[in-house]
TrEMBL record:
PANTHER family: DIACYLGLYCEROL ACYLTRANSFERASE_MYCOLYLTRANSFERASE AG85A, ENTEROCHELIN ESTERASE-RELATED. Coiled coil: none annotated. InterPro entries: AB_hydrolase_fold, Esterase-like, Ig-like_fold, Ig_E-set, Mycobacterial_A85_antigen. It comes from the Bacteria. GO terms for molecular function: acyltransferase activity, transferring groups other than amino-acyl groups. Residues 1-29 form the signal peptide. Keywords: Signal. This is Esterase. It comes from Salmonirosea aquatica. The keyword Ion transport does not apply.
Length: 372
């Protein structure tokens, strides 16, 4: 029986925050370069040293072209048509650092930018753009030992089909045949799927770099679809956790424990999620406290002491968000948990909102705290 409902989920999780930083009166620097997420050989979209984004779309017969970025976007960036049939425009302000989804509206129809690679978000494959971050080294591809991300298909009697997950195994997993590892079950947000944490979040590179630096214990990460996207935006209160809880705890976890070298007990198993994946994490960890020993909510609601009382005590409660969300709520929740005797940690990503740079940074902070 599900013990909590969506009424307990913090509404701030889905704040429609703008993707723009505060507009500066400084002139736009003309040092634009192609985004690192462009299709091979494509010059646009581009970003500059200040975080502005510039777009160029070939639509000679169109009457209007607009680019919509992220969760906000101030109504979008309207492009101007040139004599050559190309539409060009620059965001009115610098974007927050990190990854952003976007799409292009041409005469009322929604399309992807043919110059950019696509990423699954907002229940569709959308274009992606990367604004270089000052701290991007922690998820950069470096000359260090790398783990592997592999697709698995696991049987699910409850849904009558095979389901997909991606599993990160740390460097050395294949060679150290006698070593067993803890496991983090890491969930995506609404509109995304099991590809998000590897593609948009760079979870594998974050782990590779932390392990190489000796900052975290090596562990396995399992990423699967949270059954979130059948629910339309605006209907979140109708979400039921039971189907996914069954898939995760009764089907996926036993499969992973049987097919990977895991330490298959509560003290070596964690669950965390971003946004709606955090909501799922809270629901499942409260319903199944005997299954997970470490909890993480990344822009995904809060725990309070009453949630956790009379249950097996978690070894860690980690709660994070961006500074443009509601950091005061995160800090207060953690202070209350500490006051009640729980090992609780808060983290606030400076200068970001409800977006992947917040969650990349959050995973980077969370990983070293796990499985101690």
């Amino acid at each position: 029986m599900t013990r909590i409902t969506l009424a307990t989920f913090v509404v701030a999780t889905f704040l429609s925050v703008t993707s723009f930083s505060q507009t500066s009166s400084t002139a736009i620097a003309e040092d634009f370069k192609p985004s690192s997420l462009n299709q091979p050989g494509q010059e646009y979209p581009q970003v500059n040293s200040q975080g502005y984004a510039r777009f160029r779309i070939n639509a000679p017969k169109a009457d209007s072209v607009k680019v919509s970025l992220g969760l906000g976007g101030r109504g979008g960036t309207r492009l101007t048509k040139g004599a050559d049939g190309f539409w060009t425009g620059t965001t009115e302000g610098p974007m927050d650092e990190g990854f952003h989804y976007y799409n292009v509206t041409v005469d009322g129809g929604k399309f992807n930018d043919p110059g950019a690679k696509n990423y699954y978000g907002s229940v569709r494959w959308e274009s992606g753009i990367e604004i270089p971050a000052h701290d991007q080294e922690f998820y950069a591809l470096k000359d260090v030992p790398h783990g592997h991300v592999q697709q698995i298909l696991f049987p699910s009697k409850s849904t009558g089909t095979s389901r997909r997950a991606f599993v990160y195994t740390p460097p050395g997993y294949e060679k150290n045949q006698s070593t067993k590892y803890p496991v983090l079950y890491l969930q995506h947000g609404w509109g995304e799927d099991e590809t998000a944490w590897s593609n948009q979040g760079h979870a594998n590179l974050i782990m590779d770099n932390l392990i190489a630096e000796g900052k975290t214990k090596p562990f396995i990460i399992v990423m699967t679809y949270g059954m979130t996207n059948e629910l339309k935006w605006g209907k979140l209160r109708e979400f039921k956790i039971d189907p996914f809880q069954t898939v995760l705890t009764e089907e996926l976890i036993p499969y992973v424990d049987a097919n990977f070298r895991t330490l298959s007990n509560r003290d070596n198993r964690a669950m965390a999620g971003l946004s709606m994946g955090g909501m799922e994490t809270k629901m499942i960890t409260l319903n199944k406290p005997e299954t997970f020993g470490y909890y993480g909510l990344l822009s995904g609601g809060l725990y309070n002491p009453d949630d956790l009382k009379d249950e097996p005590k978690p070894k860690l409660v980690f709660i994070s968000c961006g500074s443009k969300e509601r950091p005061e709520g995160v800090k207060k929740a953690v202070d209350d948990l500490k006051g009640a005797g729980y090992n609780a940690v808060s983290y606030v990503s400076e200068g970001t909102g409800h977006e992947f740079q917040t969650w990349r940074r959050s995973l980077h902070e969370l990983a070293p705290l796990l499985f101690k």
